[in-house]
Amino acid sequence: MKIAFTFLTYGKNVFGGIENALFNLTKGLKDIGHEPIVFTSSTYSNSHKDNLPAKIFVSKHLPSHYDGIVSNLINQLRDRSAKINKDFDLFLATYTPDYIVVVDPIWGIIQSTNYPINQLSSKTPVAISYHIANTWRETKDIMKSSFDLNYNVRFAVSDFLVKEIKKTYINSKGCKILTLPNSIDTNLYSTAAPITHEKYIFCNSRIAKGKNVDLLVKAFHNVVSTNPIKLKLCAGDFPFGETSHEIEEIRMLIRKLSLETKVELLDAMKWNEIPSIIANSALVVLPSTHETFGIAALEASAAGIPLIVSNTNNFKHLVKENAIFFKPNSIIDLQTKMKEVLRNYGKYKENAIKYSQTFKERYDNRVVARKLVDEVLHHNLL
Fold first, then answer.
1. Burial class, 214, CB count within 10 angstroms (exposed 0-12 / middle 13-18 / buried 19+)
2. Is the pLDDT higher at 338 or at 66?
3. Which of 26, 86, 160, 187 has its CA 20 to 30 A from that of 272?
4. pLDDT tens figures, 5-20
5. DSSP states of 279-307 as a string?
């Protein structure tokens, strides 16, 4: 089956949750014998084309840079809509997909460009996949209109997100939204990582607004005073967005707290290096207060590493069996939980290992890919 996806950015080792989820899903589809295809921009897809699991069609009219202002992005898509839609027609004619997945109403391109989706879905099944609730003022109207279009199927990455959507958008209440979770390539967690003798805490979440990495640094400042341990942070660039300001603020905080020798910013790290870095860590901490899925928590859970997360959003459901929860935005509670795990490490490590296989089986990218295919066939969409 030829399954097409539309999303603004697609590539290998891209530091973004949706981008990574899309890469993993397309790889899972290819591994089980299907043909994934992606309509996208040149932001990342021009590099390593030969190593991508999906065939790609790059529209030169799609914006390849994002300044962080979502209204500017939407205006660019609308201003170029005629040319982008013409490219999408060419994409359809070139690959003749059996099934199409629009990955998000805004970032999935063709709804923002007012492509005639109702006409398209009468010929080729079209699904919409929700990864965030798009509650910004600039995006709410586009998100709202997605429930009035004739999408054949609607997916969301978690039950939590389904509830958030239903609560926010009144016209979504009559729409059935199925859950199709994000996934990981469990092959990356099946082989033993090279052993290092460095003891460290790792945060495999990017540095950006809402991720609360500054909270972790402040809590770590108290923890490191009584524990000979380091902290490693992901400082790579977020795709299609500017995060240099947030990263510089973390650097300033590290200097202010005199943690230069204790905190390491991994600015040249690739996403496929995360499994080995997690495997060698003593503890993974994710202080984010808003996660509609939480792929970073999934990575730590599959690796069997003790995990501390804020008691909020989908974290409460995704890792309820294995994680240690702290009160959101509380430096004191976070440092208390970190000290507790390090003090009684054997107990927490044993529990993490106990549940790791469950996460691998449940969220393997081939398993999730089969679920997508099963939903297509179950609804007689082909």
1. middle
2. 338
3. 160
4. 999 999 887 777 898 9
5. HT-SEEEE--S--SS-HHHHHHHHHT--E
Structure tokens at 206: 């990017």
Higher pLDDT, 342 or 274: 342
Pair 273, 12: CB distance under 8 Å? no
Considering the domain delimited by 186-362, tell me its CATH architecture.
3-Layer(aba) Sandwich (3.40)
Given a contact cutoff of 8 angstroms between Cβ atoms, the answer to whether 11 and 23 are in contact is yes
Q: Which of 71, 92, 65 is closest to 5 using CA atoms?
A: 92
Q: Are 169 and 147 in contact (CB under 8 A)?
A: yes
Residues 6+ apart with CB under 8 A from 371: 180
Q: Token digits for 79?
A: 């201003």
Whether domain 2-183+364-378 has CATH 3.40.50.300? no
Q: Work out the number of other CB atoms within 10 angstroms of the CB of residue 261.
A: 9
Rounded CA-CA distance 35/13 in Å is 21
Beta bridge partner(s), residue 233 = 203, 265
Q: How many CB atoms lie within 10 A of CB 153?
A: 22
Amino acid at 339: K
User: Where do the CATH 3.40.50.2000 domains begin and end in the chain?
Assistant: 2-183+364-378, 186-362
One-letter amino acid at 306 equals P
Residue 380 burial (CB count, 10 A): 7
